[in-house]
Amino acid sequence: MSHDILVAGEALVDFIPVRPGPISSVEGFRRRAGGAPANVAVALARLEHAPAFWTRVGDDPFGRFLRDTLAERGLPDRFLEMDQEAKTALAFVTHDDSGDRSFSFYRDDTADTRLEPGRIGDSTLEDLEWIHAGGVTLSSGRSREATFDLLDRGTKRGCTTSFDPNARPELWPDGRTFRRFVLDALADVDVLKATRAELEALGFDGESVASLARDALDAGPHTVFATRGSAGSVAVAVAAAESPWSKAKALHAGYEVDVVDATGAGDAFVAGAIAGMREDRNLEETLAFANAVGAAATTASGAMTALPDRSDLESMLE
């Protein structure tokens, strides 16, 4: 099967607590596959847009668990690299009573920091129409150069590129470094998805989420999707030839669901936005579709557990 979407970045193992509370008080965790790009790739497969997925995991029990899980969820292993020298990254997730979460990473010199530039060859890029990447791989190791290389070469070959900063302050030495590298990446990005906090951390200006997103258009993207949690999302776009939209702004109030775990909701939103654009939905329809995918993903524990398929979304979209 040929794949014209490539998702690139980390796959890791999330340990989800059996109950809310600080990590020091939680006695049990459930093992789940995770990593923002991995979540996006699996969500796209559920939406019948199965991508190729470029990642690197350790040749250890956790890496083999991820390899098998991704295969079971419909992702090919052509670009899944098993590192013989580095371990698989781990993340321990903690929740408060509303489902919001924080992370404790075990990611020093792990396999996902060791992606190498040029591993996605020119012949592969020629067959791609879309590339998605995230900010975690910019935070350390050779993966930073590999991500820049992929976005740059993909842009030059006419691929649509999307990006999620996925800000994790604990992975960065300081906010200035995060801002510098993410802004460098945005020069080769067409579609940006970000939260208000991420837009502010990147130095964009504005009192509202929409004005922050509009300011981000000057950094390179033609479209910015800004998520607002349970309040829905906003999209702004460049009203120019490089934009696919006939309208420059859309708002959506979101969907009411019983939130169990918000881990991966933003990644599911990204997949919904990519799928909506690939299906030539207009800006309002794409935003509604992305919100529905993101909301559905919060209804069970684990980033991949509740990812919806088409039938799951019908009643929500109606």
TrEMBL record:
Question: What is the recorded name of this protein?
Answer: Carbohydrate kinase
> In Gene Ontology terms, what is one molecular function of this protein?
ATP binding
What family does the Swiss-Prot or TrEMBL record give for this protein?
Belongs to the carbohydrate kinase PfkB family.
The alphabetized UniProt keywords are: ATP-binding, Kinase, Nucleotide-binding, Transferase
* Domain of life per record: Archaea
The scientific name of the source species is: Natrarchaeobius chitinivorans
Output the SUPFAM superfamilies linked to this UniProt entry: Ribokinase-like
Q: Which residues form the Carbohydrate kinase PfkB domain?
A: 3-309
InterPro entries attached to this UniProt entry: PfkB_Carbo_kinase (IPR050306), PfkB_dom (IPR011611), Ribokinase-like (IPR029056)
